[in-house]
Amino acid sequence: MTEASVLFLRACLALxxxxxxLLSFLGIWEPFCRKIFFPYFLEKFSAVHERKTKKQKxxxxxxxxxxxxxxxxxxxxxxxxxCGANFQFYPPGCKVTCTDINxxxxxxxxxxxxxxxxxxxxxxxxxxGEDLHQVPSGSVDAVICTLVLCSVHSVNGTLKEVLRVLRx
Length: 168
What we know:
- The chain is of the alpha/beta class.
- It contains four helices and four strands.
- The chain has a four-stranded parallel sheet with strand order 3-2-1-4, with no helix packed on it.
């Protein structure tokens, strides 16, 4: 590629990114991204992803009932729930506590709960995987975290919290 072509492509990219630079300069980009764009994008992406991975997820989650506690209840903790894309794969009657660092997923999560009424929604916690202090030790039967460990600050810290909250 010639130097002129590279300069032209860089100018085009800068022009395309100009609205983002402007919103960032005005202090609007991060709130817009966290509250509107990212939840909307993730919900749409999840729908496509779920169609492509449905059989694999059904197989992955099929043994969740094996983790039912002696009392007959199955309590799940989902780290990084997002829009609740995994709910359709959970067994009927299980109780789910949802966590995410972004509280703006509530709208998509509500839609998912309405579609998946076989799941009993317990609560939504704004929490990172590394800090689940709001969840009592030994209080859940299984922990689900799909497409999450790649974006936590500390995988080891998250896994330590998973071990802490799991029922012995």
